[in-house]
Amino acid sequence: MAPGLPQLPGLTSLPALDHPELVAGSVAAALTAWPGGDGVAVVEIDPDLADTAAMSEAYGVPMEASANCVLVAGRREGTERVAACVVRADTRADVNHTVKRLLDVRKLSFMPMERAVEESSMEFGGITPLGLPDGWRLLLDARVPDIEVAVIGSGVRRSKLLLPGRLLAELPGAELVDGLAD
Prior knowledge:
Layout: E1 14-15, H1 25-33, E2 41-44, H2 52-59, E3 67-76, E4 79-88, H3 95-103, E5 108-110, H4 113-120, E6 137-141, E7 150-153, E8 159-163, H5 165-168, E9 174-177
Parallel strand pairs: 4-6, 6-9
Antiparallel strand pairs: 1-2, 2-8, 3-4, 3-5, 7-8
């Protein structure tokens, strides 16, 4: 384990900037360009355990230490509005009320898996708020920055990123939203 990096018991933290082979290409580029990138660790996991509940159980990571990133899309007056919503894994994004209101759309849907994978350039089960396409809104539940060591996707299923939750609020374009999750 590298000193000074976020760590959790049972996982070996490596500096994410030094291990671009363990993250999606868009995530590696975002980490390099982002001033907070040097405070991010990457940990290898079994790709069959990439889903949050399975990873939490297998590695002893509390659900409240993990953050999920879901992609949603809706239309208003012919214009599509897309957002990534980041919430603690022990909560669910309130897409039917809060997110729909924030995006100012009548109907909002989770992005279909194939489209989410293609447009994010990330693997399903590893989608993360780092390295998403320009123009997508990034909505964070106001409780996410309180996570001491947040576990989030790395863009691929075979690893996760560890970072202080407060750093997620410092991502470019991040919007903290009270009541984003219930």
